[in-house]
């Protein structure tokens, strides 16, 4: 292998690699659809030209057929009038138009087949373009999704997740420590208040009891000093007992009446 062949292959390989890297799927698909639509336009024009040619050939064929029939009738007329030379000339004209019509018929059949083939190709190309547009949209959506996924992965890969999660763990430990300190302070504060109120309640109870005892002692000494000397008891008279009995009887009668 010569040096120039090797250099040519290296250049082609590098160019192909650059082209492959420069290809954007969305742009390439869009251009492919545009190219297919241009082919469709050209094919439609070709079909239109073929149909026009077919129609002209068909008109010429029909015209020659009519001329052939006309000269056939003229030949018969000349022969019926006894003019054989004129009849022969008419038959010559008839043959010329007949031969032309036969040639045009062959061309017309070929053109009809060509038009049918072009029409089938046109329908097939239109179907392919519709399929290509649908596939293009699907591939564009897949390409966009792949680009977004790639960008997301690159973003995630650029983030130092280890240090970030470590910061979260440290902050969680700090928050838990603060919560524990807050709960401890609340418990200590509650115990101090309860003890203070318990002391107040116990001291106030002792004080109250002490004051009550003082009041009893003070009241007892005053009552003893205020009481008069005891008098000898008198013997109850019979009249006082009867009066009490009478009052009891009255009360019983009131209870019965009620």
TrEMBL record:
What lineage is on file?
Bacteria, Bacillati, Cyanobacteriota, Cyanophyceae, Pleurocapsales
Q: Which family does it belong to?
A: Belongs to the PspA/Vipp/IM30 family.
Q: What's the protein name?
A: PspA/IM30 family protein
Query: Does the keyword field hold Acetylation?
Result: no
Q: Where is this region: Disordered?
A: 217-258
Superkingdom of the source?
Bacteria
Which key words are in the record?
Coiled coil
Listed Basic and acidic residues bias regions: 249-258
**Could you tell me which InterPro entries the record lists for this protein?**
PspA_VIPP1 (IPR007157)
Question: Which source organism does the UniProt entry give?
Answer: Hyella patelloides LEGE 07179
Q: Which Pfam families match?
A: PspA_IM30
Show the coiled coil region(s).
26-60, 101-188
Per its UniProt record, what PANTHER family does this chain match? Answer: MEMBRANE-ASSOCIATED PROTEIN VIPP1, CHLOROPLASTIC, PHAGE SHOCK PROTEIN A
């Amino acid at each position: 292998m010569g040096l120039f062949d090797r250099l040519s292959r290296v250049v082609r390989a590098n160019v192909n690699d650059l082209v492959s890297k420069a290809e954007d799927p969305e742009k390439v698909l869009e251009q492919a659809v545009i190219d297919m639509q241009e082919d469709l336009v050209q094919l439609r024009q070709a079909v239109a030209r073929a149909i026009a040619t077919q129609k002209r050939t068909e008109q010429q064929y029909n015209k020659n057929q009519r001329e052939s029939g006309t000269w056939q009738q003229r030949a018969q007329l000349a022969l019926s009038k006894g003019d054989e030379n004129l009849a022969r000339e008419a038959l010559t004209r008839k043959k010329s138009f007949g031969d032309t019509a036969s040639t045009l018929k062959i061309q017309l059949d070929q053109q009809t087949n060509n038009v049918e083939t072009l029409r089938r190709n046109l329908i097939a190309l239109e179907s392919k373009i519709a399929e290509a547009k649908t596939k293009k949209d699907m591939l564009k959506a897949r390409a966009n999704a792949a680009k977004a996924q790639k960008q997301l992965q690159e973003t995630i890969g650029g983030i130092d997740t280890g240090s970030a999660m470590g910061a979260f763990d440290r902050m969680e430990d700090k928050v838990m420590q603060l919560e524990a300190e807050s709960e401890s302070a609340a418990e200590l504060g509650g115990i101090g208040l309860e003890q203070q109120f318990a002391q107040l309640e116990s001291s106030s109870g002792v004080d109250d009891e002490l004051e009550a005892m003082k009041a009893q002692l003070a009241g007892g000494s005053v009552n003893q000093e205020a009481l008069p000397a005891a008098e000898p008891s008198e013997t109850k008279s019979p009249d006082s007992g009867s009066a009490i009995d009478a009052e009891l009887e009255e009360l019983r009668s009131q209870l019965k009446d009620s």
